[in-house]
Amino acid sequence: KQWYQRRVRGAMLVRRCTLLPRQLPYTSLSTNTPRPDRHTQHHDITYQEGAGEQINLSKILRKIQRDVKINPEDTKNNSLTTSYWFERSVKLSELHTIYLQLSKSRLTTLVVLTAAAGFAFNPVSGSLASLAAVSAGTFLCSASANACNQVMEAPFDAQMDRCKQRVMVRHVITPLHGLTFSATCGVLGTGVLYYCVNPLTAALGLANIVLYAGVYTTMKRYTIANTWVGSIVGAIPPAMGWAAASGTLDSGALALCALLYFWQFPHFNSLSYNVRQDYCRAGYNMMSVTDTALNGRVSLRNTVALIPLCIAIPFTGISHCSFSFYSVVVNTYFSYLAWNFYKTPNKQTARELFRFSLVYLPILFGFLAIGYAFKERTASDQEKHHGDKQYMKDLCPAGVLPATAATDQLCPVANKAHSSVKGTAS
User: Fold this and answer.
1) Distance between CA atoms of residues 245 and 189, nearest Å
2) C-alpha–C-alpha distance, residues 110 and 113, integer Å
3) Angstrom distance (rounded) from CA 189 to CA 146
4) What is the pLDDT of residues 404-414, one digit of tens each?
5) Sign of dihedral through CA atoms 178, 6, 43, 279?
6) pTM metric for this prediction
7) Do 317 and 123 contact (CB within 8 A), yes or no?
8) What is the per-residue pLDDT across 256-265, written as a single tens digit (0 to 9) for each?
9) What DSSP state is assigned to residue 346?
10) Backbone φ, ψ for residue 59 (5° rounding)
11) Which neighbouring-strand residues pair with 48?
């Protein structure tokens, strides 16, 4: 508990030194300075708190020296002066890069692709305008949620190696600027989905923003149940695409949502295992930090659940029955990697599971697309065959013109249709 409190106070001190510089009492940089404890090196700079506890600030000083013009002569004294502090300015040409980083462009692109997959696999064919509108609205909603998440977690991301280069941690823009960008994207995204698609899709997009930025981000510091809430957030985009095409949600949409829901557990749990030290320093309550065995069990359980789910997907009408066979092969190997991670949790097994989870969705959606195309072609051939038979019956009823040589002479159109039906059947 004391170690965790030191980390939290250190994060708050980073924020003070970066946003509100003050005259802080630092110890001397002399090599004769005694080593106060095992956590502080000889040349480290320490900050003395009221309770007599010293916090290592050498990394904080190096960060300040990168962002602030400091005279090297001033560091020889026992205090850090702020006479060389300057205000950071952002060029207009840099804003698009900053906004892409703030919206987590790669993650947002994946969210848009899953929404487009839900739109494409819907048996009701939608227009290209609807596809463009749902893609743009989903992108804006995802960008809004990610930007709000980064603004809220900036003090804690500063303590994580994988997050310390984010724009809010480096204070490239102000928190007010970040929140304004988040709110603007949220309003625009929800408006595009409402006016250009339908109210159901807009409600799903708004629910995604609230769940991710309001519920998931807050729960990360209190309970491991945040992983389940985050999986629900990741499972909503296919439903948005499905609702954009047909205006309703049925078994096909639920199957795609369940696929994304189960997939996220092995994907995120294997990722969080290798960065659990970062989560621990930042104070996030994750399964990989609090219970490694549960982390592996949940990954294995949800990976195995993908096998019967993918077998049942063709019964929803969004793919051919051959998809069940292909999916069993892929899911069996996925479950094998999850089993290895469960039995022997280490960086190697976690890395193998995480890497395969990255290619799992493209492979499975590729099989879904092939099965969907084959199913549509089969249905088209059957409809054409049925239409030819009905056309021949309507033109030359069997009770009036029996199938004889004379019939062929009296009804050459029926003979031609009959020949085409036989050719199709062969």
Assistant:
1) 17
2) 5
3) 13
4) 444 444 445 44
5) negative
6) 0.70
7) yes
8) 999 999 999 9
9) S
10) -70, -35
11) 54
